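During the reporting period the student researcher (J.K.) took over the structure-prediction task from the postdoctoral fellow and processed the backlog of single-chain submissions. One of the processed entries is reproduced below for the supervisory committee.
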Amino acid sequence: MSDQLLAGVAKIDITPPLGLTMAGYGGRTETSDGIEDPLFAHALVLEQGDEACGIVVGDVIGLPRPLTEMLRERVTELCGIPGEKVLASGTHTHWGPALKSTGYLSDRLNEAVCEDYAITCVRQMAGAISEAWRRREPAVALAGTGEADLVKFNRRPVNVEGCTEMNMRLPLDQALVASRVGAELADTWEKGGPPGERLSTPQEGVQGLRVGPANPHLPLLKLSTSDGKPLAAMAAFGCHPVCGGDPETTFYRYSADWPGYARRVLELALGCPAVFLLGGAGDQVPLRRTGDSRRRIGHSIGGEALRVWELLDGESIGPLRVASRRVNLPLRDLPTVADARRALDETDDPTGAGASRERHELTLAERYEGRDSVSVEIWAMALGDRWGLLGVPGEILCEIELQIRQRSAFANTCVIELALDAPGYMPTDAAIDEGGYESGWSPFGHGTEAALVEAASALLDSVGGG
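J.K. obtained the following structure tokens:
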């Protein structure tokens, strides 16, 4: 092609001060009291001909839409990239700061949420994109997909009655069975084929439950300078960052969790920044969660990314295309504000940690009162027919990622959750029927799965995959 691809990368420390409220666990009762490892934001920009885009991911639970809009406006001011060409997301670490007050937090913790830090954080993330833009240089892009197996499992096994029995943690022998069988299920969702298997047969090794898919795919974009020097790696994997956090020691300390360790594997080996995005992780949890699990999970994922990097060679892929669109997603039947407030008032401690579910329901009732759907933005970036990246808001279940990947015509499809917004879990229809944590906390209802998959597939086709 005639137009040279340009790429730039940058990272910035976004570790907050101590004493702020942390995000990720409704059971927390205190503010942060230490730093286990620093939090960062990583940014990548691409430019080719008249097309350009910026991608930034921070070690935060997720970015609410107002902060994303603020970030996009700032990027345009700093370096001229149009806001709609910018993708912002979080790694979803459960050991970072809360960026806004929220229903599940107690009143005391909501008071310790720092709006000034949230604004500073998104300005830093915007600055990272601007710095990456300043550093852009001729680049060669290559793409591949690996498989990081036996590092996670699907936390939504189903019993013989067809109901979900949530398993956030499993003994290692059971987790290994769930991980292995889940990966086998994921492989049945073949590209261009019919729907794959969504539940296994009852597994004696997992309490007789039927386990769900655990997608092991790890897409990676390799960017090198024109003389072959590593410039940047961008990879994605779907697994909740919920490792570690001993309640007696590190539960209130900041950490990037396994994504931080995965990044360091690549950065130490290659000498360039590594951008790790979160794939479909809504129902995916790590095999190990205690002791040195952050290191072990992160090194396993980062090691597989490095293996894929080293195997890639050839001509640069392209051209670069970027697009976005909006899609309406149906809401579930939410309580009225009056009913939700009454349910909260009837709890033993309406302002304490034990009433987090009731406060969350009241927040949803107030936010969506009188509405039956919500408009969200999805975002796509492609390099020819070899690499297609799709960003969707909220936390998606593994089956949604598998369906999008199955219908994609790209050789390597990277599906990212928590892109541009963090409105909650996006469940499948089956997950709603089977019950469980994700569908119970989600504002979305039946039809969300089909609407999201259809819109995502059409958007990927529009940037060159079909």
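The committee noted the following: The chain has a mean pLDDT of 96.
J.K. will present the remaining backlog at the next meeting.
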